[in-house]
Amino acid sequence: MPGTPGRTGRITAVETYDVRFPTSRDLDGSDAMNPDPDYSAAYLVLRTDAGDGLEGHGFSFTIGRGNEVQVAAINALRAHVVGRSVTELCADPASLNRDLVGDSQLRWLGPEKGVMHMAVGAVVNAVWDLAAKRAGKPLWRFLADAEPEWLVSQVDFRYIADALSPDQALELLRRGRAGRAERERELLRRGYPAYTTSPGWLGYSDRKLTRLARAALADGFTQIKLKVGADLADDIRRCRAARAAVGPAVRIAIDANQRWNVTEAIAWTKALAEFDPYWIEEPTSPDDILGHAAIRAAVAPVRVATGEHVQNRIVFKQLLQSGALDVLQIDAARVGGVNENLAILLLAAKFGVPVCPHAGGVGLCELVQHLSMFDYLALSGSTDDRVIEFVDHLHEHFVEPVRIHRGHYRAPRAPGFSAQMHPESIARYTYPDGGFWAAELALTAQEVSV
Amino acid sequence: MPGTPGRTGRITAVETYDVRFPTSRDLDGSDAMNPDPDYSAAYLVLRTDAGDGLEGHGFSFTIGRGNEVQVAAINALRAHVVGRSVTELCADPASLNRDLVGDSQLRWLGPEKGVMHMAVGAVVNAVWDLAAKRAGKPLWRFLADAEPEWLVSQVDFRYIADALSPDQALELLRRGRAGRAERERELLRRGYPAYTTSPGWLGYSDRKLTRLARAALADGFTQIKLKVGADLADDIRRCRAARAAVGPAVRIAIDANQRWNVTEAIAWTKALAEFDPYWIEEPTSPDDILGHAAIRAAVAPVRVATGEHVQNRIVFKQLLQSGALDVLQIDAARVGGVNENLAILLLAAKFGVPVCPHAGGVGLCELVQHLSMFDYLALSGSTDDRVIEFVDHLHEHFVEPVRIHRGHYRAPRAPGFSAQMHPESIARYTYPDGGFWAAELALTAQEVSV
Question: Which residues form the Mandelate racemase/muconate lactonizing enzyme C-terminal domain (chains A, B) (predicted)?
Answer without folding.
Answer: 206-302
